[in-house]
Amino acid sequence: MDAYVASYEKYTAAVSVVAIKDGETIVNKAYGYADIENQRKADTSTVFEWASISKLLVYTSVMQLVEQGKLDLEKDIQEYLPDGFFKKLKYDDPITLMNLMHHNAGWEDQTAAEVFYYSEDEMLELGETLRKNEPKQIYKPNSIVSYSNYGVGLAGYIVEEISGQPFYEYVNQHIFEPLHMNDTTVHPTGQDHPDLVQRRNKIEGYTKDLKLIPENRVYVTFYPTGAAIAEDLGKFLAALMPVDDSNVLFKNRDTLNEMLSTSLYYEGTSTPRFAHGFVEMEYWVPTLMHVGNLKGFSSKVVFDPESKFGMVVMTNIAFEEIYYYGLISKIFGNSTYVNSVTSEEGGYFQSARRASSRFTDLFRQLDITKFSKAELSSLYNVVEHNGVIEKISVTPYMDYLPVSKWKVNLIVISFIPVILAILFSVTALLVYFIRMLLYKRNKRGNPRIDFNKYYLAINVAGAVLPLNLLIIHTRLPIYPAHSSIRINLMFNLLYVVLAAAYLGLLMFKLRKSSYSKKQKVMYIMSGISAFILAAFIVGWNLYM
Q1: Residues 34, 22: contact at Cβ < 8 Å?
Q2: Which residues make Cβ contacts (< 8 Å) with residue 249, sequence separation at least 6?
Q3: In terms of Cα–Cα distance, which of 452, 476, 456 is closest to 464?
Q4: Which of 23, 134, 269, 480 would disulfide-bridge 475, Cβ 3.0–4.6 Å?
Q5: In this predicted model, what pLDDT tens digit does every residue of 28-65 receive, in sequence order?
Q6: CA 352 to CA 107: how far, in whole Å?
Q7: pLDDT reading at 338 higher than 70
Q8: DSSP code per residue over 49-78
Q9: Is 233 within 8 Å of 18 (Cβ atoms)?
Q10: Rounded to whole angstroms, how far apart are CA atoms 200 and 190?
């Protein structure tokens, strides 16, 4: 391990590695810098973000209540929720706790702006924030796996409803205290453990090329899904692999065995996919694992219950791979799953994890990947019917759905009028200002203003629109707060209002006023361009 880290030292900020064997910690080491700028080295007391590994606390809490007979994994969760909790369900099929564990309840994904916030003052109670941010249900339950922070946050809220105490209090009492995890909190802002938060704030987050990520302390809206910060994740890992009949997490060892047993297979196969929320991964040995990514942090826990060996790797690098994947593969081997694909050729596919009714849907639609037949054969799972591929599983956490070549071409073609509309707006502005300069140069005064001010305004807005969209797109990977992009979304909405007003004025003015043929053509062309861009904004929900 020392040699591996040394060979990648120039790519390393901080990395913490814990290895557990037969209930004992055999490795607990930290490498690199928690704060590169201030040359603050990481050590075994450095506090990292768990990110989505926090979800394992939700699954464990649910199973504790199942053991007590207070929850049933197969019951409709609406039996555990207040009346009328959901407002956007599309299907009548029941949603169960098992669906929440398997990420196949059918919800659309949500924007980073809905999942994260930056100020403690924005914190809401879990139930309130789940109601406020309810996503649309776009898939039938049990049909598509699409990673859902909302679904796991909902499971945490059900724990609250059944136990009668906030989720973080439940976890403190029933997981952290029994395991003596004194340096861990899952409170949405860490207020119950201020000294731990203070230590967390001494570590910075970085990109893969070790550039500092500003404002890398984010809060998770559905906090049970990713709020945990700690230095003693190894204690939780050890409790998942008890060496004898002792069992701290559950009263009955059978409950632990049930939680770690396969609960979902890849469709049409005997290959395990989920064990009650834990991901099943075949390396050299079958393992259970979960990963986590948060702004500036990556984490992974992998363990083999049979040999009672497991590892935790945590870094302060966003979407890190050298340790997250590389070091794990050095210990556990590479993960592979080979399919027998009968389809004659590959095709285009798109992640099922998308926000279908929010502004990010546009950027998801553009993220379409083409897989060859050979590439399809090396994926986790391919579901076919009569030689037609229905879905593929690129990662255990989500399915990818086929996209017809016709739709791909349609998306590409649909951008042509948008690009032309933007080019027209820019060109019209240039022509207008050149005319103004010529008028002044020839001392002819200013051209007739009248409708020109509206013409000028709509073309300025049309020219600025692509820049505004670019700003939104570039900010998405850094988990922006909704407040930080609200002005961009409001601009898009304002453009739609301006376009509608311009078209209305245009129809009125052309009937009432006399303009030259050239002026009429330019005004009408601006109206067409405005209509195209407004339809583009509304069609892709770029205002919400």
Answers
A1: no
A2: 60, 64, 175, 178, 179, 239, 240, 256
A3: 456
A4: 480
A5: 999 999 999 999 999 999 999 999 999 999 999 999 99
A6: 10
A7: no
A8: E-GGGGHHHHHHHHHHHHHTTS--TTSBGG
A9: yes
A10: 10
